[in-house]
Automatic annotation (TrEMBL):
The keyword Cell inner membrane does not apply. InterPro entries: Ald_DH/histidinol_DH, Ald_DH_C, Ald_DH_CS_CYS, Ald_DH_N, Aldehyde_DH_dom, Aldehyde_DH_Superfamily, Succ_semiAld_DH. The keyword Oxidoreductase applies. SUPFAM superfamilies: ALDH-like. Its main location: mitochondrion. Homotetramer. It is an enzyme of class 1 (oxidoreductase). This is Succinate-semialdehyde dehydrogenase. It comes from Trichoplax adhaerens (Trichoplax reptans).
Length: 498
């Protein structure tokens, strides 16, 4: 067992049994070749939680070689055997849900109940993909000649590099790795430097589930070493696939790097989600949906409502009810405290961005209805904030805030608001509330996004394809479509069949 400096919150929840501070490569727990480490901090109090291996160039080559060698064995397993191992991994997540959640809350900051929900959803994704492994079907095509037979085979791409973010450190790994492993690929997971302990805990459970050595790998890098080592990873021709979740700017850079070896890529990048309340909306339902969408994970999700558009005729009612709901239902504090719904932001840099967006809006005429400043707890806590009088020249109209700020724009007609909602380079998610069925069809079809929530502020489920259009990325996660991201289609033309 790797020795890790434990936070008290983890000791009291027995999660220490899942804590590791070394990378998991080829079925072994490996320290950095150059013995370097970096520190993981609790965003709720700034305390050091653990020192984790900051892996070196030599380690990158080792993890790729290990995953490549294991690929040939893993791809040949029957779907029953592969599905069984993946399913057991999902079962172990559920069995260890409370301890995994404690780790997530400690290094990421979200409320413990939210962390438990994340682990449950992650297990659901894994078990969904374990079942989908049984349904990777090829095709028999019509013959173009009497003595020919035409087939399409679906085969795993190969070694998949999976680069995951800090905001959902368990679920994002499950969503990517579940699909990759079920498809027959081997996985190299590079978690965020802010949340490596969750990833390493998943590796511990993957080992227990029975993945052969080298099939499931986790390699950890600190902030300084990440750019160089990720480039080495992506320059390696043995890595045939990249799946990345993160900012649009970094996604573009990684795509450029993948182009050198023509890798398959899937990208889930930034968003700037619109949340539209039409005059026919159920206002109480819209307020609840706005709370669900905007303030989940303290506003730190890629599908959070970033721009809230409310029809002029219901604007004042909606804003009054939203402000009241925010004051009564949103409690800020450390994630282990009872009743907390809003944890800290992940870094001081994140706090600074939220402060900049609020200050910019106020300087341009917006009104702070509630919140607007750092929380009295200090540190990386920020008050849930409602702003009215938002306009398209304010920073959050074109930038993703990634924090607990809800700016409200007025609008007067459908065409106007759809045009404004679509006036962005990204297109991940969009939401709207209406009870006019014709309008529902029109707007759902008109919004330039990959996902639309109609009279609902929550989108994510293992059954549905998750992803965006425009500069929000490429490909889909979740659902049966996700496995296609990790499969090549091979055409076989057989002649001489008499």
């Amino acid at each position: 067992m790797s020795k890790v400096k434990l936070a008290e919150s983890l000791i009291t929840r027995s999660a220490s049994s899942l804590l590791r501070n070394k990378s998991y490569i080829g079925g072994q727990w490996v320290a950095s070749a150059n013995k370097q480490v970096y520190t993981v901090y609790n965003p709720a109090n700034g305390e050091a939680v653990a020192e984790v291996a900051d892996m070196a160039e030599e380690d990158v080559a080792q993890v790729v070689d290990s995953a490549h060698q294991s690929f040939h064995q893993w791809r040949k397993l029957s779907y029953k055997n592969r599905s069984g191992i993946v399913s057991r991994w999902g079962e172990l997540l559920l069995k260890n849900r409370d301890d995994l959640a404690a780790i997530v809350t400690t290094e990421q900051g979200k409320p413990l109940m939210d962390a438990k929900g994340e682990v449950t959803l992650a297990a659901t994704y894994i078990q969904w993909f374990a079942e989908e492994a049984k349904r990777i079907h090829g095709d028999v095509l019509p013959n173009h000649a009497d003595d020919h037979r035409l087939l399409v085979l679906k085969q795993p791409v190969g070694v998949a590099a999976l680069i995951t973010p800090w905001n959902f450190p368990v679920n994002m790994i499950a969503r990517k790795a579940g699909a990759a492993l079920a498809a027959g690929c081997t996985a190299i997971i590079k978690p965020s430097e802010y949340t490596p302990l969750s990833a390493l805990a998943l590796a511990d459970l993957a080992e227990e589930a029975g993945f052969p050595p080298g099939v499931f790998n986790v390699i950890t890098f600190g902030e300084r070493s990440t750019p160089h080592n990720v480039k080495l990873l992506l320059d390696n021709p043995l890595v045939r696939k990249l799946s990345f979740t993160g900012s649009t700017a970094i996604g573009k850079l990684l795509m450029e790097q993948c182009a050198r070896t023509c890798k398959r890529v899937s990208m889930e990048l930034g968003g700037n989600a619109s949340f539209i309340v039409f005059e026919s909306a159920d206002i109480d339902a819209a307020v609840k949906g706005c709370i669900d969408s905007k303030f989940r994970n303290t506003g730190q999700t890629c599908v959070c409502a970033n721009r809230i558009f409310v029809h002029d005729s219901v604007h004042d009612e909606f804003c009054a009810k939203l402000a009241a709901a925010m004051r009564t239902t949103l409690k800020v504090g450390p994630g282990f405290e009872e009743g907390v719904t809003q944890g800290p932001l992940i870094t001081e840099k994140a706090i600074a961005k939220v402060e900049r967006h609020v200050a910019d809006a106020v300087s341009r005429g917006a009104t702070v209805v509630t919140g607007g400043t750092k929380h009295p707890l200090g540190g990386q806590f920020f008050e849930p904030t409602l702003l009215t009088g938002a306009t398209v020249d304010m920073a959050f109209a074109s930038e993703e805030t990634f924090g607990p700020v809800a700016p409200v724009f007025r609008f007067k007609n459908e065409d106007e608001v759809v045009d404004i909602a679509n006036n962005t380079k990204v297109g991940l998610a969009g939401y709207f509330y209406s009870r006019d069925i014709c309008q529902i069809w029109r707007v759902a079809e008109a919004l330039e996004v990959g996902m639309v929530g109609v009279n609902s502020g929550l989108l994510t489920t293992e059954f549905a394809p998750f992803g965006g259009v425009k500069e929000s990325g490429l490909g889909r996660e979740g659902s049966r479509y996700a496995l296609e991201e990790f499969l090549n289609k091979k055409y076989v033309c057989m002649g001489g069949i008499n």
